[in-house]
Amino acid sequence: MFERISRFLQEISSEGDQGLAEPNDARVAVVALCYQVMEADGVISASEQNRLRELLEGIYDVHGTSLDDLISAGEEAGSEAVDFYRFTSDVKRHLDEDQRIRLIGLLWDIAYADGSRSEMEDNVVWRIAELIGVSGRDRVLERQAALKRAAIDDEGDMGESAEE
């Protein structure tokens, strides 16, 4: 799992050494979308924040101020946005289809970071997937894979089977 997410984030960061807070930086868009998922249920848990920090530290090898700057840029961009368009358009512009599918997996990993997922988190991931052109089938497959990685019961399934 970690290798897959690592490759994904390295691929989107390999487009040059842009500053972490550049407005059209795909990394900022990814962090902003992660925050949209974390905020969906009305509570950003410490486990969600820690998971995001852990992923960014390990994958980007950023720590301290650089990590804080990236997270702040994504969080600020997300709080200023009225919809997902700014971020999803950046994602569509910078990521190919496989990378966009892996992004949905990352969003599911964030949704499960607190031990469960809510209907609101489901809705946000569904909307983001639709906007970036990820099929319903791929979205469900990524959710199932994230559920296995999280190794928790999926009680809020809402009709989608966790069985493959």
How would you portray this structure in words?
By secondary structure, the chain is mainly alpha-helical. The protein has one domain (2-150): TerB-like (Orthogonal Bundle). The protein contains 8 helices and no strands. Helix 1 packs across helix 3 and helix 6 runs antiparallel to helix 7 (119-131). The two termini are 18 Å apart. Mean pLDDT is 82; it is low at 15-21 and 156-164.
Q: Please, what is the average pLDDT?
A: 82
Compute the number of structural domains.
1
Low-confidence spans: 15-21, 156-164
Helix % is 55-70%
N-to-C span? 18 Å
CATH architecture: Orthogonal Bundle
Number of helices: 8
Would you identify the CATH H-level superfamily? TerB-like
Which fold name is given in CATH as the topology?
Answer: TerB-like
Give the ordered list of helices and strands: HHHHHHHH
Q: Tell me, briefly, the overall form.
A: globular
What class would the helix/strand composition place it in?
mainly alpha
Q: Approximately how much beta-strand content do the residues carry?
A: under 5%
Number of strands: 0
Cα gyration radius (Å): 15 Å
Largest sheet: none
- The CATH class is Mainly Alpha
Topology record:
Blueprint: H1 2-13, H2 26-39, H3 46-60, H4 64-80, H5 85-94, H6 97-112, H7 119-131, H8 136-150
Helix pairs in contact: 1-3, 1-6, 2-4, 2-5, 2-6, 2-7, 6-7, 6-8
